[in-house]
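sanity check this record:
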Amino acid sequence: MSSGPILVEIQDRHVREALGTLARRLEHSAGLMAQIGEALVDATKHRFTTSMSSTGARWVPNRAVTVTRYIQNEVSLWTQDADFEGLEGVRYVART
């Protein structure tokens, strides 16, 4: 038994207006994105300084072999075609 088509009417004027306002605000979001980016960079630098995750958990300390390899890589970076002249306060001490 069929009673005919069902008509559903949705009152979405307020939703469309809110979405339109949001879309207009997002058209000029470069400043907002720059602020968000700076906040993320600052937070990441802070985590490296404090050795803590974003949840506040301490990082697991590096193993000795990791630290040794890091130091070896830093020395090789500074010794490959490095020009230390004119760099105030920087000097290279050769390992023996």
